[in-house]
């Protein structure tokens, strides 16, 4: 019965399923020459009587959230999807069975399990069941074309793919391409409608999800992470500037980010969370795990629409949701018939980019509470948030909306976030004007890019994660993003934030969308070139737009070229500026 | 510039001040025979491209909270104490200087720094400055007598003691006793009033706190923990049943508990926290560090009184506070002249024991929101809390108050909490009736008892921390404490919760306090014996009390003996039942 490790020497003995140890509490006397600040002997005084065992040490993992909720909120609703409804006890049981089924399939620790599915209950369950079998979840973007799907299945070496029935066609085409490579294709598990209502002819080689879960055992002993730095998921970036990169998350990072983010977003009290953010984006910005930490209810939607959002809010008493700008747009512009009175204030976490002021204002009038968040795939989603300050209540609406549109301050599990000169690593002045690159450090920064050590080392150069986002720091410490580093236009030595120019362009009544890139210019180096898509039924010519710009922004920022065109976008809805830059280059030099 | 550790082998190289590593992401293929649940090969699939460096790994420590608040809430109020007021930037600077001064004094990593002081700003600053020099904080209870102070200074091997001027006398007597042992006494730093108004004749050998801080350097490079399992503090238990034990906290545990507890207690938004809980109790139930995580304001009080509480709430717009039952009593029974209208709902975390219903009701009517918390020194303070469930809103006041008086469910950083049979380790039935011992596991359980490996191993027997608290588990998973394991009275084979009997006794209009212990009985084994203290100006005889008991509790629980007497208490205000048990024994067998 001696299950204790007395903390005297670093040890690698296995105990209660743990295989690694941190060093001694009472280590030998050592000298630490790197503490240059003082000349005292920096030796360590020892402490005795301490142990490390299962009573006081557990590797951090979001699996714990599910286990806790199954106990302390056992009868509370975990998932709602149409007529399907589970409690936390049921979700826990289903995840154990699913993990067991995966083990029976031969899934080993560290194996990759891919998904290609919208926000259905299976997607939520896989976020726990895959780590519970020691495997790594790889949720692919449902908008990928077959070629990308093949490339990422190969790159991740996925052993199984859980596939929604609506995406069967894309996947079949992808798997045919896969077969040509001579490699063994991943196994398929087909997700039908959770209420059994889908009527697709299943591919005969695929197992159906519910039947698959049923093959698992309740008594399966889950495979906890051996180390909290074990990988839990790999999320591919959208690839605005290059090939998608596989961002690897660890159990530790996932635990810390999801716990912290979910507490920041709302209270600990039974949130009802509406899923419009795809779970394949940074694992739902860490909220897949975070909602389990709070014992909240996950309201799942197969398809996001304004009607579905307002209906769900009214039907389920939604308290919280996340939303990308495109979804906010949808909500603000919903026709009256689709819009319903909110039962109470609904808190919305905004990610991706700051929406235009008029969208912000409209949604607030409808009863939504909006908070800007900032993060990247590499930071498990949310890393900073625009925390409201009580003294802002006294400001004018215009001042308030300026303050609210900033990205804000880093949360408690990000060790540090700063705006730095990427060449010198000096912090920029907190004057709201000097631009630099956002850099972050801490336990909620990714483990690295899968099989791309060069990119990992480049991203972590000088001991900080380089976000690639250009920003300013305000005197109150709040960060405001100005542009992507690669998108900024430098004209006659002036940095022009394309985001700012685009925001002005979108204020023109006829403009639906706009994207700005640099066009080569013999005199200025480059000048802003705007690609503009007009709203249906509206008209405007280049001169109208240019006049509007001249009236609303500094002279040097005003675009010199206006192109009316559709905007090419990535699978996550981001504009592919590299294509627009090619187009702008094709226009030739301006001066 | 190569500062990366590629995660391929376990390594112990120093990098960016870290001296230990967890094992490889892409370790070799290993077999794990302890996963008995399935027969598949349980080998590990490797992952490449991952690194560990300062960009993505930092040992968890509450020091980070202070550093973050100094940046993101730099101008916001950190501490208020009378006319003294600091911002987070100032508190951070003062802590760095204080850490530097300690380093100059020769304080090494792992050295113990003791305090003997009430909740003054110096106490708060020491909670960060001592860890920032790599040392271990040992906050002694200000009610200790000189003998105990000497014993604990010797046991902890404290190198310095920070001493409040009001406790100079006790300490001088203690140090005289210390000198007799022949050992070198700890150095003294004397805390005068932070506003410079105290007029005590300082002991000439002692340094004054503000002068001491002034000797430190702003540029001091703090000593971060080498491992997040390094000790951060040692808190001595009050010793209701035995000698005080030194409970050692780690940086990791302190980070997790303070973050989690402070989020549970309130929102992330600028709390104004009133200190009535001594910072020397479990480091202020982890709120010393937790308030820094939220950038809240610490309202410090030298002396707790109803008037000081109501005045502070009104003056500083207090939003949150913690309180032991004795403080709640004080607040509920305050004369009208000392009571002020609350500016808004004030959330109160209750620790120690559930107060009687009428106190609960009265405070709620005054505008306080009360939540029961449960924890021990060994769990960094709060481990469980009575989370309000929305459906409880529909119940009768009586039902609600029954539900609210329970200790509740464990928080997200406690891995598991259960009520178990201490002999068989089986979980008790969740029927609200079967009693067992509360046991806990997880990262917020202490590292162990300082220099008392035997006690540590006893406490962690079978891989769980044994709380020594007897409780039931209700069908909804909520735990309710019934008694201390050592206090329970077993009469004729029936377990009698002395807490329940005491609650009934306190319901008698003449009773101020009551404590129940077992009195030997030849027939029943033992029977309940009540020690009762009456309110001033009230009269009641034993027969009155016994009749009241018979009317309000089950026959077998009714005390057979009533003794009118003062109750002997520990320095933390807990009744010393072992003394009462001796007295009861002295009465002889009843039957």
Automatic annotation (TrEMBL), chains A, B:
Superkingdom in the source lineage: Eukaryota
Cited CDD domains: ttLC_FACS_AEE21_like (cd12118)
Boundaries of every AMP-binding enzyme C-terminal domain copy: 500-574
Compartment(s): Cytoplasm, Cytosol
GO molecular function: 2-methylbutanoate-CoA ligase activity; ATP binding; medium-chain fatty acid-CoA ligase activity; propionate-CoA ligase activity
Cellular component GO terms held in the UniProt record: cytosol
Domain AMP-dependent synthetase/ligase: 66-450
Swiss-Prot/TrEMBL keywords: ATP-binding, Ligase, Nucleotide-binding
InterPro entries (alphabetical): AMP-bd_C, AMP-bd_C_sf, AMP-binding_CS, AMP-dep_synth/lig_dom, ANL_N_sf
Signal peptide (from-to): none
Similarity comment: Belongs to the ATP-dependent AMP-binding enzyme family.
Protein's recorded name: 4-coumarate--CoA ligase
Lineage per the UniProt record: Eukaryota, Viridiplantae, Streptophyta, Embryophyta, Tracheophyta
């Amino acid at each position: 019965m001696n299950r204790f490790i007395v903390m005297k020497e670093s040890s690698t003995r296995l105990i209660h399923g743990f295989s690694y140890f941190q060093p001694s509490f009472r280590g030998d006397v050592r000298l630490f020459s790197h503490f240059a600040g003082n000349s005292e002997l920096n030796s360590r005084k020892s402490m005795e009587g301490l142990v490390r065992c299962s009573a006081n040490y557990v590797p951090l993992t979001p699996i714990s959230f599910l286990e806790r909720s199954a106990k302390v909120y056992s009868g509370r609703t975990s998932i709602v999807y149409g007529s399907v409804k589970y409690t936390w006890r049921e979700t826990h049981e289903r995840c154990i069975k699913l993990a067991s089924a995966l083990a029976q399939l031969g899934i080993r620790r560290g194996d990759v399990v891919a998904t290609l599915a919208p926000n259905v209950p299976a997607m939520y369950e896989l976020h726990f069941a895959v780590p519970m079998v020691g495997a790594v979840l790889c949720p692919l973007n449902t908008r990928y074309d077959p070629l990308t799907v093949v490339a990422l299945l190969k790159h991740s070496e996925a052993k199984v793919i859980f596939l929604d029935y609506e995406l069967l066609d894309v996947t079949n085409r992808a798997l045919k391409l896969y077969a040509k490579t001579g490699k063994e294709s991943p196994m398929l598990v087909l997700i039908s409608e959770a209420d059994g209502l889908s009527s697709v002819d299943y591919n005969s080689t695929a197992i159906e999800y519910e039947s698959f879960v049923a093959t698992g055992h309740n008594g399966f002993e889950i495979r906890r992470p051996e180390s909290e730095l074990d990988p839990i998921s790999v999320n591919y970036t959208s690839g605005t500037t290059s090939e998608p990169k596989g961002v690897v998350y660890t159990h530790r990072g996932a635990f810390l980010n999801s716990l912290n983010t979910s507490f920041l977003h709302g209270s600990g009290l039974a949130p009802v969370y509406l899923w419009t953010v795809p779970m394949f984006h940074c694992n739902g910005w860490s909220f897949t795990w975070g909602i389990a930490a709070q014992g909240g209810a996950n309201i799942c939607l197969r398809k996001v629409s304004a009607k579905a959002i307002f209906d769900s809010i009214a039907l389920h008493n939604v308290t919280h949701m996340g939303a990308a700008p495109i979804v906010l747009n949808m909500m603000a512009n919903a026709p009256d018939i689709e819009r319903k009175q909110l039962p109470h204030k609904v808190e919305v976490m905004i990610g991706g980019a700051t929406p235009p002021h008029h969208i912000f204002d409209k949604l607030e009038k409808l009863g939504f509470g909006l908070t800007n968040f900032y993060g990247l795939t590499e930071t498990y989603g949310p890393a900073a948030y625009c925390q409201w300050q009580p003294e802002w209540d006294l400001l004018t609406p215009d001042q308030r909306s300026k303050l609210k549109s900033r990205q804000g301050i880093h949360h408690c599990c990000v060790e540090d976030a700063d705006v730095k000169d990427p060449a010198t690593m000096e912090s920029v002045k907190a004057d709201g004007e000097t631009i630099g690159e956002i850099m972050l450090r801490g336990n909620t920064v990714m483990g690295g890019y899968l099989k791309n050590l060069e990119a990992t080392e480049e991203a972590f150069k000088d001991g900080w994660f380089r976000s690639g986002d250009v920003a300013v720091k305000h005197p109150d410490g709040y960060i405001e993003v100005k542009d992507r580093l690669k998108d900024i236009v430098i004209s006659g030595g002036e940095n022009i934030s394309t985001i700012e120019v685009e925001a002005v362009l979108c204020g023109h009544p006829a403009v639906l969308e706009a994207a700005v890139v640099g066009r080569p210019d013999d005199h200025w180096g480059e000048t802003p070139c705007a690609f503009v898509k007009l709203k249906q039924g509206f008209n405007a010519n280049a001169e109208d737009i240019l006049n509007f710009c001249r009236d609303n922004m500094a002279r040097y920022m005003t675009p010199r070229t206006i192109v009316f065109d559709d905007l090419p976008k990535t699978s996550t809805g981001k504009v592919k500026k590299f294509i627009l830059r090619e187009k702008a280059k094709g226009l030739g030099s301006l001066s």
